[in-house]
Amino acid sequence: MFQAVAIGGAYATGREIIEFGGVYGAYGWAAGVGMALLGALLGFLVYETARRYQLFDYRAMMKHLIGRFSWLFDVIYIPFAVLIIAVLSSATGNILHDTLGFNYWVGVLGVILLSALVTFRGTVLIERFNGIGTILLIAGYVLFSLLVITTRWDEMVAVFAEQNHSLKPDATLLDALFMGMIYVGLGFVIYPSTLMSVRHLKSRKDSIGAGILTGGLYVVPWFLTFFALMSYYPSATVFDAPVPWLVMLQDAGGWIVVVYGLLVGWTLIATAVGLVQSIVLRVDTNLKESKEKRLSGAQKAGIVFGALIAGMILSQIGIVDLIAVGYLIGAVLLIVVFGIPLFIKGSKYLLPRAGRENKE
Fold first, then answer.
1. Is 55:64 a contact under the CB 8 Å cutoff?
2. Low-confidence winner among 17-26, 113-122, 210-219 (lowest mean pLDDT)
3. Secondary structure letter of residue 242 according to DSSP
4. Which pLDDT does position 124 carry in this prediction?
5. CA distances from 249 to 8, 99, 209 (A)
6. DSSP-derived 3-state class of residue 247
7. Rounded Cα gap, residues 131 and 35, in angstroms
8. At a CB cut-off of 8 Å and minimum separation 6, what does 16 contact?
9. Residue 43, pLDDT above cutoff 60
10. Among 40-44, 258-262, 336-340, where is mean pLDDT lowest?
11. Which of 54, 70, 139, 201 could form a Cys-Cys staple with 206, CB 3.0–4.6 A?
């Protein structure tokens, strides 16, 4: 679930890897290392906290972490989720236009309608849809990356041999590492969509394994994309493109571009579904607590289409600006309201004695 949601909003286009690592050129690998280590740690803390206290939606998680201030997360999370949906909508429109020749708005409307359809079918279908899509896309990324890297191997090696970081000439390895750790803050908008799956974890060992897998899966497609980008560094044609992967795959053959469009279309929908589902669960839980009733089918439909249409409207701003400004602000805010409280309350689970299964 984490990988399915993360990969659509980030790795599908390649734009985020540029903003949060790629611009550092030969130093950018440090951002990936920071992501892997901190991502694994945060994943474990989220999963173990949720497992021990049966926190299967983000309303319950935030009440546990920050109590009566839990509404702060909603103020950040819901607009940020809509912002990510805007990026997905814009990316889908661009990708389907450039790969299959569809009108931009056909792609945007397509992601909205299909996301709504999968969301309405419930949790089981969401898990299957996202799981299958993730496996296919990882396979696709291996193929796409190998095609780019093997054909431009000398260019990529030259970037590292020359320690080229010309787009960030004053940057250091620590700058790149820090940016990668900031980027992990975006994970806090993704974790809520994974909480429904924490019910499968039965022990602290399971949480540790899930955390390690999260950190690893987080950066496998990141590094594949990063090394592919380095073979073009610092080309403005790629590094200024809304969808860098499309530019990099242009020389690989028409069928590759079509496969890319189909796989990415799947994962963009998977991401939107995960985000919308987490919003619906949040509102439903809050309504149950305050009025002791659940959302009706019509109300759920209203929330789903409202979030998706708002994302469609915002998509007109463009991917580059949405990611460069909106994502950075959102990541920092989420670290403050989610990350820091998580460390304060969950750090005790890192101690050996925390292996006991009793609640504290």
1. yes
2. 113-122
3. S
4. 62
5. 18, 10, 35
6. helix
7. 22
8. 9, 10, 183, 323, 327
9. yes
10. 258-262
11. 201
Distance from the Cα of residue 120 to its chain's centroid: 22
pLDDT tens digits for range 166-224: 999 999 999 999 999 888 887 787 787 788 889 899 999 999 999 999 888 878 888 99
Q: What separation in angstroms does the CA of 199 have from each of 104, 194, 242?
A: 39, 10, 38
Residue with the two structure tokens 């990988």: 3
Report whether pLDDT(30) > 60. Answer: yes
Dihedral of alpha carbons 271, 188, 144, 103, sign: positive
CB 291 within 8 A of CB 260: no
Confidence of residue 360 (pLDDT cuts 50, 70, 90): very low
Phi-psi label, residue 207: left if phi above 0, alpha if psi -120 to 50, beta otherwise: alpha
User: 10 vs 103, 277, 296, 307, 319, CA distance in Å?
Assistant: 23, 19, 33, 19, 11
Residue 68 tokens read as: 């009566």
* Spatial separation of the C-alpha atoms in residues 196 and 275, rounded to whole Å: 12
Over residues 291-316, the pLDDT tens digits come to 767 777 777 778 777 877 787 787 77
Assigned token pair, 24: 């550092």
Q: Which of 167, 215, 225, 158 lies closest to 187 in space, CA to CA?
A: 215
**Both structure tokens of 149:** 């890297």
> Considering just the CA atoms, what is the radius of gyration of the chain in Å?
20
pLDDT at 21: 93
Report the pLDDT value the prediction gives residue 130, as an integer from 0 to 100.
63
The overall pTM is greater than 0.90: no
Alpha helices in the chain, H assignment, sequence order:
2-9, 15-19, 29-53, 58-66, 71-100, 104-120, 123-151, 153-161, 173-184, 191-194, 204-230, 236-239, 244-248, 254-291, 297-314, 319-321, 328-334, 340-346
| Number of residues written out for the chain | 360
In whole numbers, what is the pLDDT of the chain averaged over residues?
82
Q: Determine the Cα–Cα distance for residues 281 and 283; give it in Å rounded to an integer.
A: 6
